[in-house]
Amino acid sequence: MPRTLKRCVWAETHPLNLDYHDREWGTPVHRDGKLFEMLILEGAQAGLSWITILKKRTRYREVFAGFDPVKVARFDQRKIARLLADAGIVRNRLKVEGAVRNARTFLAIRKEHGTFNRFIWQFVGGKPKVNRWRTMKQIPASTPESEAMSKALKRCGMTFVGPTICYALMQATGMVNDHLTSCFRYRELT
């Protein structure tokens, strides 16, 4: 009889969560395009459940030009109005306008630092921070690193980048390993 893999508890609440957990969450990301995607999706998630965003991710990829920051930075008010009428994404004016603003800021950061990756990974010293959580209750909503990231991104002009959103971004992109120590992914990523 095959042994069942142990996972973080949240992963088993929905098949999309399971796939995301097993393939993506916590895997170090260094590609600017993927970092931009996760930045936009984490901002869209504010106040909502992550499963809501996972269910809408395919549509986000379609209407946000494959998360190409150069293209998103060019979105005008007509394009924003079309996005706000699209039930396939989160239709929140502040979030949609924020995504366009963040694309412009993303490009400015990339121009100044060579890559967005170089800028964003500085908050963990360039390598993943490995935590040792045994229960979900131990995992913080934010950390001094996510607070520093939030302040820096806001100073640059970004929105929807509070400390909690920044910590979620750090978790998603493998800047921190917040898989529970009992989870098979913890060992794979350590």
Provide the CATH topology: Endonuclease III, domain 1
Describe the biggest sheet?
Answer: 2 strands, parallel
Percent range for β-strand residues: under 5%
Task: Please provide the ordered H/E string of secondary-structure elements.
Answer: HHHHHHHEHHEH
From the coordinates shown, what is the CATH architecture? Orthogonal Bundle
CATH class: Mainly Alpha
Nearest-integer average pLDDT: 97
What is the rounded Rg? Answer: 17 Å
Low-confidence stretches: none
Estimate percent helicity.
55-70%
Spatial order of the strands forming the largest sheet = 1-2
> Structural class of the secondary elements?
mainly alpha
The overall strand count is: 2
For the record, the count of structural domains works out to 1
Number of helices: 10
For the termini, the CA-CA separation is: 28 Å
Entry keywords:
2% strand; 10 helices; 2 strands; 190 residues; two-stranded parallel ribbon
Folded structure, characterized:
It is a single chain. Helices cover 56% and strands 2% of the residues. The chain has a two-stranded parallel sheet with strand order 1-2. The mean pLDDT is 97. The two termini are 28 Å apart. The radius of gyration is 17 Å and the shape is globular. It is built from ten helices and two strands; from the N terminus they run H-H-H-H-H-H-H-E-H-H-E-H. It has one domain (9-189): Endonuclease III, domain 1. With 190 residues, the protein is mainly alpha-helical.
